[in-house]
Design a protein that fits this description.
The protein is α+β, with helices and mostly antiparallel strands. The protein has four helices and twelve strands; from the N terminus they run E-E-E-H-E-E-H-E-E-E-H-E-E-H-E-E. Keywords: Glycoprotein, Repeat, Secreted, Signal.
Length: 243
């Protein structure tokens, strides 16, 4: 069983049952803009155009961004699918995410939503290329590691630091997964991914900050993630991808 936390707060918010992202509930969402648009406005029409653009651009490569409209009515957005997700499942996730945002953040000029298979973000502010440190949360496995938690934490940091380097170093998908055998029966799995509007340097910076925040939520836990608007890292004692 997994619980969510907002960073840096350590209050448990709600329980997440591990499910396929297709047809599943969102992991988290934020309606982060203080500004609203009105029904039948140009901004609302441009937001719908943006969603249509992302449906087309994202699934072939797993990532896409774009802007629609001009001046105060311009909408900027991106969507990212997890690196192993199929084109079909990516498309399904992005379409579902856009519909869910319209329901959960009606008339908000900026919002973001995460599923296990994708994230979708839009704003009236051009955020491309900038690390999003505001929209972030953590997920924690409530079960603690029983044997040598200090060594386990070290192995988590070692694995994820290596994946941070791999994902940010000339990797076209800004995505890396890996595993390390802890003992005969136990394997530690890790994942790291950035949105591809970031530079290599900012991807590395984003991932390293996320890794540094894991002790706040997931110290000596059997699994955990730090998930943000620009990058995410996670570890589990079961395979993370392919689910």
């Amino acid at each position: 069983m997994i619980f969510f936390k907002s960073i840096p707060l350590c209050f448990l918010v709600f329980c997440f049952v591990h499910l396929s992202a297709i047809g599943a509930s969102p992991l988290k969402h934020f309606c982060f803009s203080p500004e609203n648009y009105t029904a039948e406005s140009s901004y609302g029409a441009n937001l719908n155009l943006l969603f249509n653009l992302l449906y087309t651009k994202v699934p072939p490569s797993g990532f896409g961004l774009g802007s629609t409209g001009h001046a105060q009515n311009q909408v900027n957005g991106l969507a990212l699918c997890r690196g192993d997700v199929s084109r079909q499942n990516c498309n399904t996730c992005v379409i579902g995410a856009s519909k869910e945002l319209l329901e959960r953040c009606p008339y908000s000029k900026g919002a973001i939503i995460w599923y296990d298979h994708c994230l979708l973000k839009y704003s009236d502010v051009n955020f491309f290329g900038q690390i999003d440190n505001k929209n972030k949360f953590s997920m924690t496995n409530v079960q603690a590691v029983e044997n040598n938690p200090t060594l386990f934490n070290e192995k988590v940091h070692e694995l994820l630091s290596g994946l941070s380097n791999e994902a940010s170093d000339a990797n076209p998908k800004f995505y890396a997964t890996g595993e390390v055998q802890l003992d005969t029966f136990t394997t530690l799995y890790g994942i790291a991914q950035c949105t591809r509007d970031l530079s290599n340097v900012n991807c590395k910076k984003c991932l390293d900050v996320a890794i540094s925040e894991l002790p706040n939520c997931c110290d000596a836990k059997r699994g955990g993630r730090v998930v943000g608007g620009s990058c995410n890292v996670g570890f589990e004692l079961y395979p993370i991808v392919g689910t």
